[in-house]
Structure formats: structure tokens, C-alpha cells
Amino acid sequence: MTEILVVDDSKVMRDMIVACLRAIPDTSFTHASSGLEAIERLSLASFDALVLDLNMPDIGGVEVLEFVRAQDTLRALPVLIVTTRGDEQSRDRVMRAGATSFLAKPFTPDAIIAEVRAILADRAEFVA
Amino acid sequence: MKLHVVFNLSGSEYALPFDSVLQMESYGGATMVPGAPAHVDGIVTVRGMVVPVLDLRIRFGLPPAALSLDTRIIVTECEGRVVALRVDSAREVLKLDVEKHQPAPSIVSERSSGFVNAVHPLGKRLLLLIDLPKLLGENSHDVQPRALPDDDGSNARPRLPS
Amino acid sequence: MTATADLKEFIAAYLVEAEEHLAVANSQLLLVERAQRDGETNPRAVRETFRSLHTIKGLSAMVGVEPVVAIAHRMENFLRDSDRSGGALPQSAIDALLAGVHAIEQRVAALSRGDDAAAPSEELLASLDSLGLAPVITPPPTAVLDLEPAMLAKLAPFEVDQLVRGIAKGQRALRAEFSPSPERAAQGLTINSVRERMAKVAEIVRVLPRAVPVTEAAPGGLCFVLILLSLASDEVIASAVGLASTSLQSIVRSRAELPPELALDAMDGLSALIVTRFRLARAIASLTERGVNTREVSEIMTDNARQLRDLRAAIVRVRMVPVSELLERIPLLVRGLQRATNRAVRLELEGGRAELDKSVSERLFPVLVHLVRNAVDHAIETPDERVRRGKPEEGLLRIVCGSHSNARLEITVSDDGRGIDRSAVSRKAGRAVPSDDAGLLDLLCIPGLSTREIVTTTSGRGMGMEIVKRTIVEELGGELEVHSQFGQGTTFTLRVPLTISIVDAFSFECGEQRFVVPVAMVDEIIEVDPDALVHVPANDDGSPAVDIISRRGVAVPMLQLAEIFRLKASRNGASKAIVVRRAGAPVAFAVDRMLGQQEVVIRPINDVLVRAPGVSGATDLGDGRPTLVLDLVALSASLNGGANLLPRA
Q: Which of B16, B51, B160 has the most C C-beta neighbours within 10 Å, making it the best mutation to test the interface with C?
């Protein structure tokens, strides 16, 4: 079972992402509505991938990413950063902070499926 | 379980929550302020602030006592006001289980003019718990001015001929 | 394999969430607007508004509602820039942003009905494109916070500002630590539940995650640090949230730890210097008495005195602000209020050149704002109503600042509006109708009393008269008066001390107690010759005896201070009298003996239990006990209620 943590403060957004990614077989999804909750969940359970929105209250996606990459256990976790058109200038910043990949809204279901498949595949190779 | 300061007044023991206490100090007297109520000794300086000293004996209707080496002032903070309470002695800080507080018997709360609102039995002792906001009460209805302007104009207050 | 998701199916859920975010944007913008009327910013609200619009844009893009994307995109760009430059919005921007929110609301409503969302007008887009910024630069004063530099660096400037202001207002600044674990989660303690419970007993400024070594207490290697402001004690907070009170720690650096250069209050340092100097002078005096040659030391002390005076002047100058600064922001405030309430108001300001201590000025400003709002919103009638009552269309609001008995500033705020309806107010409060202005003031200051049935957006919340009274009377040690005539207008009079700082004062002894009186208040100090006094015996109307002393041919009434204060009269009778002037007429106070002249630091006497007419504060003459500072002018006023002091011929 592939465990995916979906983090976005908008419930509609999370539901849309999960609806798209259900097309990938054997996936199970956990929701988190804030960066802090995401960090909490990551510290207590293990996940195979993280889909993370950039713009959130209390702690932004970049900060979550930086925190995650600083943990030994999470250094290799595949992270897909989702952001809104207009944040393109932060693409560099996000990639330097350690994102595995980057996707801008609006995206089609096919686009996000492809991205998540790609980052999961990378990891499988690494572990092997 | 909550920390309380325990102090003595004329043989009875009282308690105050520690989180309303800023400081406890020995006491050598206060500067008199004209017109202050009878139960106010005057003012002292604590941490750079000018703070009134309430003589709890007088406030409770007990006969006044002379200063001794044991006399203390407990500097309390309540609803933004800082007021020092003069007591006979204050030697203990105890952890009390607030669940064991009991309502004060009516004779106790009457005798203390309502300033004691609960009691806490502790072995053979009975601690009387102070209602701090009531004690520091601002209404001037229950306070008698000591020196300056009596409201009814009586007492030889020098009034200049008009 | 499931079919590819059709995101259009989410439109209904999108519309619901969009409405929620629009409501947030609206209320946050109104918060910014209200802060602005008080002359302040609300960077947090600006950031919240930005986030709402940013989310709306992303969602709208996903479900394909282009018109909303176009509007939201421009709004969020502007808000992001504003957030980055300090979080201030010019008034014109607030109006344009509210229009943008409304435009999005219309389109969301259309989609809910099944209609299409219309493309936004060029006009709307252009107005959003042309918004100008209002940059704010506040250097964060971090010296007072005791936090690791790494954590401090993560706080936004407005968060640091929030902490510092909270501390200044007397709140506790704390950190609480929470390490999540499976056991705690099973007990219902997660970061979300901790935050929710914490918000009930404290203001959460920021939550920072921290990696910690994996231990039994922190099995996830994670600890959340919550930065808080609260009035509650550690025990209360800990038990409300479900944490141990050991997980709480203060983050306010105590003054003792500050390096000397960073001492926040130069005045405290200076006053300590002056008290020390006074002790030094007495020590030298006692050496001289014993026959030691102290000539050289005394010369050094003279230099030192001059240096201290210069230093004091420099510091006091830095802290003193002109009254006009207080008044400067009023015209803008009134203009905004006029528009919001549909009144016409003519504002007259009379400044005077007084200077007051910065901390007095800072406390006065919100009080003035409240009185001005009350005047424009409640007191002054609409232009039509005014014309009907035979008043000029424009209401008059007059604010006058002047000196009062040398140590005080008097500010009057008067309007020619409705006046206060005493019976309505007393009915609302459930009390008897007040018979005089003092009674009316007491009534107005009852907590929670609002003189309007409907709470208007401009003056509804915020300070009440009760807080005005507390600020002026208790915090500043001043006076508050109201005078109102139903149908004609209302005048509020405030009297506050100019400084809560250092003054030159005479010290004297009376009734075996020491007192001081500011030099600036004293006209003269004269000898009392008991034989040259004229004694006016008690009258039939009950007024007691008074002495008249002749001063250069002028009769001056003389009062015995010992008698007024019920002190022990001295054996030899008073030998000196301090002459002050009240409303131009001299009054003398007889005292036992003069002690000297020195600079003293006046500390306010705040508590209501020890307020006394004629006592304007307390000082330390070097013995660690407070010595009363007397305002003899105010004392003479309180004794006589304004009547002429001299007996009628």
C-alpha cells in the first residue's frame, strides 16, 4: 500500500487531489490541513510520498520542506510541491529547499498523476 | 493542586493563591496618605511602583497590633491593581488540592465581612481562603476616610470663608 | 481502474469554500479599516486577506472559473507586496479591495444560481492594477525577548511587534512546548487540539516546529514551540491545554540581564543616579559636621550636579513630545468618521505649546480617539436634523489643550450636538437620574454601558467611557469631568500630569513628616511671624478660623498644613509658609521647617485606595520610603470648591 500525505488548508483542494490520485492503484491517503499538522503526522507515522501546498497559514510549504529535509528519516521522502500560477519565482527557492518536483495550479488530473508516479518511481529505484 | 501562600492574623490562618502574589517582604511601616481609609496604612515602594498597604487586621475588624519582626506585607496583584496586605506573619507556601476547598460556613463569612469565601481543612488546621477581589474592593461605601474631607462636611475641616 | 477524475464535479464544494474565504477577506479588510481609523496598522489582517485571495485564486483556477481568477490574481499580488513591505494599506486600497471582493461574491452567487460568471470590467481590473503601496518600516526591538536567535529570526516583524506591545501592556510573553506522540494523540492531544485549547487562554503569536533528539517523551523527534501572550498564570494555561506547567517558560528578558547599554528606560537609570547623589551629599554633610575637610569633594559634587542636570535635560527632551503631535492625527480621523457616519463636522483645534512625556501622550491618544468618535457618531446630529433644530448644518467639534496649574495639561473635547439625555442613560443603567455633572459622569462610566441601541461600526466596540476614566484617573493620576446640556452639546475635560518624570522640588517638614512640592508651583517661601498674623475667628455658618498673613501689603490667607492633614502640630508653631497661586490669587500653607531643594523623581500613585486631593505622586528622598509630592494648588482648590478665598469685607 502506498501511503500518501496530502497537505493543503483547503478541503476542496485536498478532495480534488485525492480524486485525481485515486487512479494510481494501491494508494491510501491521509489529510493534513496545516503545515504544523503535516509535520506532526510525519513524525509519528511513515509515508511514501508527500503532496504539499505552498501557501498555508501558520507555517508555509517551504518551511515544512526545510524542516523535513533536516530530518535523517525524512531526507529521502518524495515531495511534490503544489502551487498557484504567479508563484513561479519561488520555483527556484522550492527546488533548492529540496522539493522532488513542482506543479502549478491549475493542473489537469493527468498532470498530477504523472508527477506523483514519477516521484514514487525515483524513490523505488533509490531504495533498491 | 495549586500553590498557596499561608499567613496568620490574630491566631487564624488564611490562604491566598500564589499566582496572585508578586512578592513578600518584611515591613517597617508605610508613608501615611491623608484621606486614606482607616484600614490603609499608607504607601510603600515595591519594584519601583508605589503600592498601598492594607492592614488586614483593621480590614477584618480585629484590634490593631504593633509592628513586630514577623510582620510581613504580601504584595498581591488582582485585576490590574497591585496592593500590599499587612499580616502578622507569613511563613508557608503550600500546595493545596483545590477540590478539597469547602464553602465557608455562614458565621465565618459573616465575621469576615465576606472576605473569606471558602475554607480548606488541612489535618488539624483550617485554612480560610481569601476572596481577593472582594478584599481589595474599590467601593468607598464600606470604607471610612481617616483624615481629609469628610463627605458630610462635618469635623473641623478648615473651610475658608467665601 | 477508475476513470480520470472530472474536476468540474467539485464546483458545488468549491462555491461553498469560496464563500467562506470571501467572508474572511471581508472581515479582515474591515479590521484593517478600523485599525486605520485609530491611526494604526493590522499586518496580520493584511496577511490573512492575502491568504484568502490566494486560495480563492488557486481553487478558481482548478475548477476553471477564469473571471474570478483574473480578479483574485491582481488582488493577491497587491496584498503580497503590501505584506512584504510592512502590512499597511492606504485607505484607497481598502476601498478597491472591498470592491474586488464584492465582484467575486457576485460571480460566486451567479454560479450558484446556475448562471455564468461574467468577465470583470476593465474599470475594476484597472483600479486593482493601479493600487499604490504604503510601506512601513519598523525596526523590531528584540532586546527584550529571551529567545534563541534562530527562533527570533523566524518571527515576522509584526509578530515581534505584537509581543513587545503585549509585554508593554502588562501581558506575559511565554513559550509552551508540546511534543506529539502516539500516546498523547490517543488522549486527544494533537497540535490541532493543543492550539484550539490554547487559544481560549492565550493569544498565539506563532508556532515553530523544532527537531529534538528522539526520546520517550518525544518519540517523533519533534517539538512544537508555541509563542504566546497571556494574562493567565502558568498553572491555568497548562491545565486548560493539558500540558505540564513545566513545559511553560517566560520569554521576557528581565532587566537585570540586559547589558547596560540596552537598558530600556534611561529615566530609571538617571533617577537611580540622582538618588545616589543625594545620599552622597548627605554623607559628605555628615563628614563635614565631624570636622573633615571636604572642600575638594564638594567642588566635585558641584560639577556632578551640573552634569546630571544636563543629562536629565537631554533625556527628558528625548521623551517629551509636543501636544501638537497628539492632535495631528485628529483631522484625518474626523474626515474618515464624517464619511462613514454621514455628518458634517467642523473641527477646531487649539494646541498650545505644552510638551508632555511620551508615555502620557501614548495613553492619551486612544482616549481622545474614543471621545472624538463618540462626538461625531453619537452626539452630533445629521445635517437635516441640525437644520430642523435651528443649528448650523455643520456640527462643531472643538479640542483645546492648555496648561493647568503648571504641572498639568488640560484638554477639553466639546461638541455642539445633542447633549446627553440623562433620563435615557439612567434608564439604560437602571439607576436614578443624576442630579449633577459628577453623577452623570459616574453613570457614563458604568462598565458595558452603551448609549445607543444599535452598535454602530465606527464606535461600537473598543474603549468604553469606563476605560477612559481608568486611563485618565487611575493610570495617569489625572481628572475627568463632563458637562452636558441636553439639546445643546457636551464637553469632556481631561486633566493629566505633563510628566511622570523628574522635577526640581522643595522638601520640607510638617507634623514630623517629610513632603516635597515642585519648585515650579511655588510663588515664594515666607517667614511666619506669629505676631503679624491676623486671626479670623470661626463664623456662625460653621466655617472655622483662618489666619491672614500680610505679604508686601497684600492679605494672603494662610492654612496650617498639619491641620489639613491631621498631623501632629509642631511645638513651636509653623515657622515658614509656602505661597502658591490659585487662579491668580495667592494662598499660603504653613509648615514646620524647610529642608532643602533637590531634583526628585515623581512616581504616580495609581491605586484608588490612596488617591488624595493635593497629592500628585510619591518620590524617594534617599531613604527608600516614599515621600509624598504635594500639589498645593490642587489642595487649595479641593478645600474651597472654587470660592473666593478671602473673607468678604
A: B160
pLDDT in tens, A3-45: 999 999 899 999 999 999 999 999 999 999 999 999 999 988 9
B81 contacts on C by Cβ (under 8 Å): 606-608
Task: Establish, for the pair of chains B and C, how many residue pairs have beta carbons separated by less than 8 Å.
Answer: 124
Of C607, C609, C620, the CB nearest to B45: C620
What is the domain count for chain C? 5
pLDDT one-digit tens code per residue, A75-111: 889 999 998 765 566 777 788 788 888 888 888 999 9
Residue B121 lies in a domain: yes
Q: What DSSP assignment string belongs to chain B?
A: -EEEEEEEETTEEEEEEGGGEEEEEE----B--TT-BTTEEEEEEETTEEEEEEEHHHHTTPPP----TT-EEEEEEETTEEEEEEESEEEEEEEE-GGG-EEPPHHHHHHTTT-EEEEEEETTEEEEEE-HHHHT---GGG--B-SS--TT--S-------
pLDDT of residue A68: 87
All residue ranges of chain B with pLDDT < 50 are 139-162
The verdict on C28 and C96 lying in the same domain is: yes
Q: Print the domain residue range for B37.
A: 2-135
Q: Supply the pLDDT for residue C319.
A: 66
Q: How confident is the model at residue C235 (pLDDT cuts 50, 70, 90)?
A: confident
pLDDT in tens, C353-395: 677 777 678 778 888 988 998 888 888 888 999 999 999 999 9
Contact of C51 with chain A, judged by CB distance below 8 Å, is answered with yes
Whether B79 contacts B133, CB under 8 Å: yes
* Distance to chain C for A40, nearest Cα, Å: 7
Q: What does C77-105 look like in DSSP terms, one character per residue? A: HHHHHHHHTTS---HHHHHHHHHHHHHHH
CB atoms within 10 A of CB C329: 14
C219 neighbourhood in chain A, CB within 8 Å: 44
Residues of C in contact with B93 (CB under 8 A): none
**Closest approach of chain A CAs to the CA of C205, in angstroms?**
10
**Averaged pLDDT, C544-556:** 78
**Count of domains forming chain B:** 1
Q: For residue C644, which residues of chain B lie inside 8 Å, CB to CB?
A: 162
Q: Which residue has the higher pLDDT, C313 or C160?
A: C160
* Residue C442 or C343, more confident: C343
What are the respective helix, strand and coil percentages of chain A, to the nearest 5? Answer: 45, 20, 30
Q: What is the CATH number of the domain that holds B10?
A: 2.40.50.180
Q: Could you tell me which residue, B41 or C566, shows the higher pLDDT?
A: B41
Nearest CA of chain C to the CA of A72: how many Å?
10
Q: How many angstroms separate the CA atoms of C237 and C214, rounded? A: 26
Between chain A and chain C, are at least 3 CB pairs below 8 A? yes
In a domain, C1, yes or no: no
The answer to whether the Cβ–Cβ distance between C566 and B31 falls below 8 Å is no
Nearest in space to C633 (alpha carbons), one of C622, C624, C645, C621: C645
Domains of chain A: 2-127 (3.40.50.2300)
Pair C240, C123 in one domain: no
Mean pLDDT of C51-75: 92
Same domain? For C24 and C85 the reply is yes
CA nearest C69 in A: which residue?
A85
What is the residue range of C73's domain? 7-129
Task: For residue C178, give the CATH number of its domain.
Answer: 3.30.70
Alpha-carbon distance C3 to B161, whole Å? 102
Query: Rounded to a whole number, what is the distance in angstroms from the first to the last CA of chain C?
Result: 114
Binary contact (C235, B2; C-beta < 8 A): yes
Residues C246 and C271 in one domain: no
